[in-house]
Amino acid sequence: DAKTTQPNSMESNEEEPVHLPCNHSTISGTDYIHWYRQLPSQGPEYVIHGLTSNVNNRMASLAIAEDRKSSTLILHRATLRDAAVYYCILRDGYGNKLVFGAGTILRVKS
Amino acid sequence: EAGVVQSPRYKIIEKKQPVAFWCNPISGHNTLYWYRQNLGQGPELLIRYENEEAVDDSQLPKDRFSAERLKGVDSTLKIQPAELGDSAVYLCASSTIKGLQETQYFGPGTRLLVL
């Protein structure tokens, strides 16, 4: 499985945008970029995924670099409820299993 | 729509005792997963079911772990006998296809403590 690299932790102020980076220099042409997050004492939840183009949904935006070797999850206005571990995961186009790394712990300050 | 249901939420047992976890996936989801999550780490896949068939159990420690998914709906994960190192959160997930990619929906997990 292609690997991803994320910072161990990040901190943000409430109601400010947050940019969570992910490096995936060994990404293959068929790998999709998935983001999940895990709130305290809960199971992971799907956030967003993309292949080449930037993606938006009600939770977040995903910006993918032109060479696809990195991506950024954008939370437009962080709230206290966004404090979680965020996982960046690569999956090939044939839907292989999710392989979680340690993720990025996001702390949101009020 | 109800999410993935797991029980119990917490379990404390002594080593060498058996333990079982139960999972009810989202209605209509044919694929079911069991993961184990150690403290400070991401979840690791134990087994994946397509309907009632285990299609990937390569990471399941088969000497003490077993799983079943009778009738292709609910699933049970069992450990017998439990060891101290089995203390972890056991997560169940079920999945559907969203935008040509599979999306997994996780339950809240069962937190196991082996003393």
As a percent range, the share of strand residues of chain B is over 45%
Overall mean pLDDT of chain A stands at 93
Radius of gyration of chain B: 14 Å
Uncertain segments of chain B: none
Share in helix of chain A: under 10%
Number of strands of chain B: 11
Main interface by residue count: A-B, 22 and 24 residues
**Number of DSSP strands of chain A?**
9
Q: What count of helical segments of chain B does DSSP give?
A: 0
The unreliable regions of chain A are none
Q: Rough shape of chain B? A: globular
Question: Order of SSEs of chain A, N→C?
Answer: EEEEEEEEE
Largest sheet of chain A: 5 strands, mixed
Mean pLDDT of chain B: 94
Please compute the radius of gyration of chain A using only Cα atoms.
Answer: 13 Å
Strand order of the largest sheet of chain A: 1-9-8-3-4
Major β-sheet of chain B, in short? 7 strands, mixed
Class derived from helix and strand content of chain B: mainly beta
Structural class of chain A: mainly beta
Describe this entry's structure for a reader.
The complex is a heterodimer of chains A (110) and B (115). Chain A has 110 residues and is an all-beta fold. Chain A is built from no helices and nine strands. The N and C termini of chain A lie far apart (38 Å). Chain B has 115 residues and is mostly beta strands. Chain B contains no helices and eleven strands. Chain B has strands at 5-7, 10-13, 19-24, 31-37, 44-50, 53-56, 65-68, 75-79, 88-98, 101-106, 110-114. In chain B, strand 9 (88-98) and strand 10 (101-106) form a beta hairpin. Chain B is globular and about 45 Å long. Chain B starts with a strand and ends with a strand. The A-B interface holds A 32, 34, 36, 41-46, 49, 85, 87, 91, 93, 95, 97-103 and B 4, 33, 40-45, 48, 56, 91, 93, 98-109.
